């Protein structure tokens, strides 16, 4: 089962990515819904303004890391008076259980919602055991 605990640290020290790129902007933590069924775990993250090219999903050890860069564009000659979402970056990290098959992760992005499906390993899925009479 996936844990919805954010494993990133807010200790004040710069992350490896920040040290490499010089970017010290604090990423937004996108809201995520997590569902589990007998076959898989599904995460749905709201990431408005993020294009597929600016989205990165990766597994490091047993952690799924989701990062994206939002680009919100206004029509020509328009000025934003107020915006709930500003251009910036998103980051979330999830500890993954060994019961999940990380080699078969599927992800898609539609209308600013990232959906990630992580199947359970076949041998760990619930199954019915037939009882024999003798």
CATH topology: Immunoglobulin-like
The share of residues in helices is: under 10%
Tally the helices: what do you get? 1
Using the coordinates above, name the CATH class. Mainly Beta
Order of helices and strands: HEEEEEEE
Strand arrangement in the largest pleated sheet: 1-2-7-6
Question: Care to describe what's here?
Answer:
The strands form two sheets. This protein has a four-stranded antiparallel sheet with strand order 1-2-7-6, with no helix packed on it. The chain has a three-stranded antiparallel sheet with strand order 3-4-5, with no helix packed on it. The relative contact order is 0.26. The chain has a single domain, classed as Immunoglobulin-like. With 134 residues, it is mainly β. The protein has one helix spanning 16-21, and strands at 32-36, 40-46, 50-60, 63-70, 89-95, 106-110, 113-119.
List the helices and strands and how they pair.
Layout (H helix, E strand, L loop, with lengths): L15 H6 L10 E5 L3 E7 L3 E11 L2 E8 L18 E7 L10 E5 L2 E7 L15
Antiparallel strand pairs: 1-2, 2-7, 3-4, 4-5, 6-7
